[in-house]
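Please decode residue identities from the backbone states below.
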């Protein structure tokens, strides 16, 4: 009991230190924030959701000691729900795509509940309130991203794009952060930190259901219509594009494993694959084509046919 409590407090402290580093030096602490859920994810996978919840409580107390909990509530809910779902999925040996999507949806719902009181729901003022809330969040990163040096016309275009696609961009950020934390925690667990019954699913097995392709068809249809359907369609397309991008990366990973390339050779290939928008779109199309072509059969003929 005391060991579990100690691990819970330690996980909360480690997460707090990561968030403190991000707040103190955003220029180098920002990328580290992606892995803020990792300590809580590992302790949840190791000891269960109860211990993970104690770790989240410890993090909340540390944040309360440091400053205002209310200002950090959206991030706290995002991080906490995501870590608990990912950890529980690892403990139960759920498939990676199932665990990640559930974690992202839960984190997004938690953050939305925290943000709702800050948005005016009066008719005709919703977009104005949303614009103000978004501008406040963007200003927190303005110095890091160099937005102040942009011309007013450029900033207006960027702001318009962000306002239109903000929900899907948040989904994509959570999606890639959740995927990184899930598979890194899985690798840590392979060091005998925690065990679970059932099959194990590496990243190369990532495969979303074939039914998601109907989401792409519906999204394209909505995008071709007039506003506000077009805005909904663009957000759905970006979100689904992220899921199929991960599937494309998983297919690439399966081929690299089949060719038995070492890690030092794989890393540059992954980096190059993610370094250009056209390559990103190509990987997403590969993931979408897998619905019909079952491309991983070429790298592993023992795989069963897709259903």
């Amino acid at each position: 009991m005391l060991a579990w409590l100690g691990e819970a407090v330690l996980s909360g402290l480690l997460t707090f230190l990561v968030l403190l580093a991000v707040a103190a030096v955003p220029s180098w602490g920002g990328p580290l924030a992606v892995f803020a859920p990792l300590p809580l994810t590992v302790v949840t996978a190791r000891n269960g959701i109860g211990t993970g919840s104690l770790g989240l409580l410890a993090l909340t107390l540390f944040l309360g000691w440091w400053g205002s909990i209310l200002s950090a509530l959206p991030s706290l809910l995002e991080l906490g729900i995501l870590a608990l779902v990912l950890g529980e999925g690892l403990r139960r040996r759920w498939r990676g795509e199932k665990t990640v999507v559930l974690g992202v949806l839960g984190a997004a719902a938690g953050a939305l509940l925290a943000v709702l009181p800050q948005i005016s729901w009066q008719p005709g003022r919703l977009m104005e309130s949303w614009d103000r809330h978004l501008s406040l969040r963007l200003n927190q990163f303005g110095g890091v991203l160099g937005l102040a040096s942009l011309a007013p016309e450029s900033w207006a275009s960027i702001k318009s794009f962000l306002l239109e696609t903000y929900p899907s961009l948040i989904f994509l950020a959570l999606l890639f952060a959740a995927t990184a934390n899930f598979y890194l925690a899985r690798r840590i667990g392979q060091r005998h930190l925690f065990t679970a019954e059932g099959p194990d699913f590496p990243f190369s097995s990532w495969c979303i259901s074939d039914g998601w392709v109907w989401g792409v068809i519906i999204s394209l249809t909505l995008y071709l219509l007039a506003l506000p359907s077009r805005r909904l369609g663009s957000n759905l397309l970006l979100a689904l594009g992220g899921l199929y991008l991960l599937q494309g990366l998983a297919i690439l990973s399966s081929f690299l494993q089949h060719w038995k390339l070492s890690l030092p050779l794989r890393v540059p290939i992954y980096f190059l694959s993610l370094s250009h928008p056209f390559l990103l779109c190509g990987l997403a199309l590969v993931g979408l084509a897998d619905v019909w072509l079952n491309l991983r059969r070429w790298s592993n003929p023992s795989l069963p046919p897709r259903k």
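Observation: The chain has two domains: 1-121+161-201, 206-300.
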